[in-house]
Amino acid sequence: MVPADIHWLAFKRAVVTYTRIPLKVDWQTQVAPQWSLAYLPWVGLVVGLISALPLLVDSWSESLQALLMILIAMLVTGAFHEDGLLDSADGLWGGWTVSQRLEIMKDSRVGSFGVLAAWGVLSLKWWLLSEWLRVGQWEQGLWTVFAGWLAVHMGARLLPLFLIQTLSYVTTEGSKSAAWISKLSWAQVPITGAAIVVLLLLTGVISTIFMAFSLGVLFVVFGWYVKRKLGGYNGDILGASEQLAEVVILFALLGWSA
């Protein structure tokens, strides 16, 4: 059995790695990176809690609340996943061969495909979240909207874990994320499983089924696409998958409420 202090250390490392939240972390103790990776959905819970603050201001319109929630989430994470989306779009659509695509993704410059992808995904998120806030608060109350937003960030961070478990890691030499990415073992599965239980408690069985189905479709389609284009995944692909999953979950929540 893994000691509780190791779990706490792994969680803090995950928070520091995937957000800009300044925590004091012990990096000397040897802990397998899979433990921190397993806490990725729980990092999403933290991001969701912080970025939900605009919901407390009733006088703001749903569109303004949605815009601020998205911006706060980006500030908390340092646009970590959005950066992966930009690089993935440039590489997947701009390169003709696997090696070209990987080299483009490694380039820090942003191309036209990346800009288009970011504009499209962020616009969709803003519109969907605005509609979800309007419909959800009017028909089901503030708690439902708040819980749904937490579910968006927790659920979206499950998709990268599924890709890691099923695809091969591909990259060029000198990747910074290589040391942090590894398949989870059975010992880490309960951590992720507990996150799924929390999703059930937050949104209920029916909406969780909607979200699971939507994520499943995205997992199959996006997983097939990146395997065809790259032969597997890298850190940028994982970031892009998280962003696409946020959009898909918002679609599912809006569809369920309708």
UniProtKB/TrEMBL annotation:
One of its GO terms (biological process) is cobalamin biosynthetic process. GO terms for molecular function: adenosylcobinamide-GDP ribazoletransferase activity; cobalamin 5'-phosphate synthase activity. It is found in: Cell membrane. Belongs to the CobS family. Pathway: Cofactor biosynthesis; adenosylcobalamin biosynthesis; adenosylcobalamin from cob(II)yrinate a,c-diamide: step 7/7. It is a multi-pass membrane protein. One of its GO terms (cellular component) is plasma membrane. It catalyses: alpha-ribazole + adenosylcob(III)inamide-GDP = adenosylcob(III)alamin + GMP + H(+); alpha-ribazole 5'-phosphate + adenosylcob(III)inamide-GDP = adenosylcob(III)alamin 5'-phosphate + GMP + H(+). Pfam families: CobS. This is Adenosylcobinamide-GDP ribazoletransferase. It is an enzyme of class 2 (transferase). It comes from the Bacteria. Its EC number is 2.7.8.26. Its main location: membrane. Joins adenosylcobinamide-GDP and alpha-ribazole to generate adenosylcobalamin (Ado-cobalamin). Also synthesizes adenosylcobalamin 5'-phosphate from adenosylcobinamide-GDP and alpha-ribazole 5'-phosphate. It comes from Maribrevibacterium harenarium. The chain crosses the membrane at residues 37-57, 63-80, 110-129, 141-163, 184-202, 208-226. Its cofactor is Mg(2+). Keywords: Cell membrane, Cobalamin biosynthesis, Magnesium, Membrane, Transferase, Transmembrane, Transmembrane helix.
